[in-house]
From TrEMBL:
Cofactor: Mg(2+); Mn(2+)
Residue ranges of every copy of the Nudix hydrolase domain listed in the record: 4-211
InterPro entries referenced in this protein's UniProt entry, alphabetically: NUDIX_hydrolase-like_dom_sf (IPR015797), NUDIX_hydrolase_dom (IPR000086), NUDT19 (IPR039121)
PROSITE patterns attached to this UniProt entry: NUDIX (PS51462)
Origin organism lineage: Bacteria, Bacillati, Actinomycetota, Actinomycetes, Geodermatophilales
Organism: Blastococcus jejuensis
PANTHER family, A to Z: ACYL-COENZYME A DIPHOSPHATASE NUDT19, TESTOSTERONE-REGULATED PROTEIN RP2
Name of protein: NUDIX domain-containing protein
Keyword entries, A-Z: Hydrolase, Magnesium, Manganese, Metal-binding
Entries under SUPFAM superfamilies matching the protein: Nudix
CDD domains the UniProt entry points to: NUDIX_AcylCoAdiphos_Nudt19
Length: 266
């Protein structure tokens, strides 16, 4: 019997850099139980308190996210909260602002000692995202996120995730910081540069990462990514695997193939 996939959220954190559109990537430490040594985006599993209905919320409501991801409203709320929480935990970036603020009213620099203490409390689960935001009179800014992709780990894997991918722009006044204890490297790279390193064998990635980087390559800047909302609901991708004389591939539901830069599951 295959393992039941765990609900998870991951965020393609974006900025417009000198070479063009850049995405924030973490290289997970070797020896981790899932994707050790792989390059990935900030993200992780849904926490029990991510569905807290008391959280202040600004932007598209959970029912709109439910339509985007083809799930119920509670799960949609949990996924958006997990996306915001994980981005703060793993990149030191907080997608929040005043409850009655305008589109550009995002909390500025969140790198001070007091913020760092609260980030650590989130990591240890001593503090929930709802409690952090309430204590600072802030609201979660769901309008800063966009649905981007939906991947489900194939049944052949012993550790499975049902992962919703979000895109978000790095807020003005904030900087992504290498603070994740689960990563030994953090980099801003263009999608093309990241993929070039992957194909050269220098940056192993799982198929969802290489595929979404390929999707990002078509966009000239952050604004174009955020404007290019996919159709609703997103169709989940759960690949199968095949080995050919040309290499190993993940085969997607539409028949397209993604070359693997990691070994096939055994």
């Amino acid at each position: 019997m295959s393992a039941q996939p765990r609900q998870a959220a991951t965020v393609l954190l974006l900025r417009d850099g000198a070479p063009g559109l850049e995405v924030y990537l973490l290289r997970r430490t070797k020896g981790m139980p899932f994707a050790g040594g792989m390059t990935a985006y900030p993200g992780g599993g849904v926490d029990d308190r991510d569905g807290d209905i008391d959280i202040a919320w600004s932007g598209p409501s959970p029912d709109r996210w439910a339509a985007a991801f083809g799930c119920d409203e509670r799960l949609a709320r949990e996924l958006v909260c997990a996306a915001v929480r994980e981005t703060f935990e793993e990149a030191g970036v907080l997608l929040a602002g005043p409850p009655d603020g305008g589109p550009d009213d995002v909390v500025p620099d969140v790198s001070g000692d007091d913020w760092e203490a609260q980030r650590q409390a989130l990591l240890s689960r001593e503090l929930s995202l709802a409690e952090l935001l309430a204590g600072r009179s802030l609201a979660l800014r769901s309008d800063l996120l966009r649905p981007f992709a939906h991947w489900i780990t194939p049944p052949v894997e012993p550790r499975r995730y049902d992962t919703k991918f979000f895109a978000a722009a790095l807020p003005v006044g904030q900087e992504a910081r290498h603070v994740s204890g689960e990563a030994d490297e953090a980099s801003w790279l263009t999608p093309s540069a990241a993929l070039a390193e992957a194909w050269a064998g220098n940056r192993p990635m799982l198929p969802p990462t290489t595929h979404t980087l390929g999707q990002l390559e078509r966009y000239p800047d952050v604004a174009a990514v955020l404007a290019g909302a996919p159709p609703e609901p997103l169709h989940p991708i759960s690949p199968t695997f095949e080995e050919t004389p040309d290499g190993r591939f993940a085969v997607l539901p539409d028949g397209s193939r993604v070359k693997l830069v990691v070994p096939l599951p055994s």
